[in-house]
Amino acid sequence: MHFISLIVSKRTKGNSDMLGRLAINEAMANGAGGQHHWQGELAYLKDYRIEECEGCLRCVFKNEPCHLSDDTYKLFDKIATADALFLVSPTYVLGVPGNLKLAIDKYLLIPKYYNKIYGRPAISVGIGGLANWNHFELPMLNLFLLGLGFRVIDSFYVRGAGPGEVLLNAEPILRLKKGIQNIMNWQVKPFEAQISAHCPVCFSTIFERIGDNRYRCPVCIVECEARDVENPVENSAASGKVSGKGFYFPAETLNNHRWTPKNVEDHFTNWILKTKDRFKKNITEIQKQKRKLGLE
Question: What confidence score (pLDDT) does residue 82 get?
Answer without folding.
Answer: 97
